[in-house]
């Protein structure tokens, strides 16, 4: 009987210990989301890859564009840089600034290679800083994009980060084609894992 009581007591203490550990591990909304920290790591790796592509294009070819109706190589990367502007605006719950519809004009302002690299690097850093420490509660917030005609889409912050990442990859892919059109084999894609 004494062994049974000791076993019951030990079991009770174990359950209390597990229960206390579970309560101590509960998220009170202040824990940084795994999504935001992992996504920040991916964007850091992608920043390095983007900068390596800029390095490959000769300074004299930064203005290369395969057609009059397409962005130049430099404009692609300036466009990629606007991701931080969009993220900061969305996460601050403010309307997109008036410059947003005029991005083409801003992208056309010439930059040399060192300026372009510094711009792209700083914009990636701003974007990462905007979302790297967000909690799941913050990521659940939504934003209504008012520049879509008809019914504006409402997106949560995870969707915004993911969509902007896909948008960046789309334009960076175009940049690799621009390199190939100039006889330059793009550096091997950098994985983030």
- Helix and strand pattern: HHHHHHEEH
Instruction: Report the span from N to C terminus.
Output: 56 Å
- Percent helix, as a range, is 55-70%
Category by helix and strand content:
mainly alpha
Main sheet makeup: 2 strands, antiparallel
User: Roughly what fraction of the amino acids lie in strands?
Assistant: under 5%
Name a few traits of the molecule.
193 residues; mainly alpha; two-stranded antiparallel sheet; 7 helices
Please summarize what this structure is.
This protein has seven helices and two strands; from the N terminus they run H-H-H-H-H-H-E-E-H. With 193 residues, the protein is mostly helical.
Q: What does it look like?
A:
This protein has 193 residues and is mainly alpha-helical. Helices cover 61% and strands 3% of the residues. It has seven helices and two strands. The chain has a two-stranded antiparallel sheet. Helix 2 runs parallel beside helix 7, helix 3 runs parallel beside helix 5 and helix 3 (73-91) runs antiparallel to helix 7.
């Amino acid at each position: 009987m004494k062994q049974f009581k000791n076993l019951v007591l030990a079991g009770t203490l174990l359950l209390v210990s597990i229960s206390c550990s579970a309560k101590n591990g509960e998220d009170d909304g202040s824990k940084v989301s795994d999504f935001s920290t992992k996504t920040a790591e991916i964007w850091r790796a992608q920043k390095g890859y983007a900068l390596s592509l800029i390095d490959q294009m000769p300074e004299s070819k930064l203005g290369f564009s395969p057609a009059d109706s397409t962005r130049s190589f430099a404009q692609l990367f300036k466009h990629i840089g606007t991701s931080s502007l969009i993220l900061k605006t969305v996460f601050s719950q403010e309307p997109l600034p008036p410059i947003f519809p005029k991005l083409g004009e801003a992208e056309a302002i010439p930059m040399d290679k060192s300026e372009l690299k510094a711009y792209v690097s700083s914009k990636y850093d701003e974007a990462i800083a905007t979302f790297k420490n967000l909690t799941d509660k913050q990521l659940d917030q939504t934003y209504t994009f008012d520049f879509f005609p008809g019914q504006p889409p409402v997106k949560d912050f995870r969707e915004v980060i993911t969509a902007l990442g896909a948008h960046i990859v789309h334009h960076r892919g175009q940049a690799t084609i621009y390199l190939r059109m100039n006889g330059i084999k793009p550096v091997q894609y950098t994985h983030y894992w």
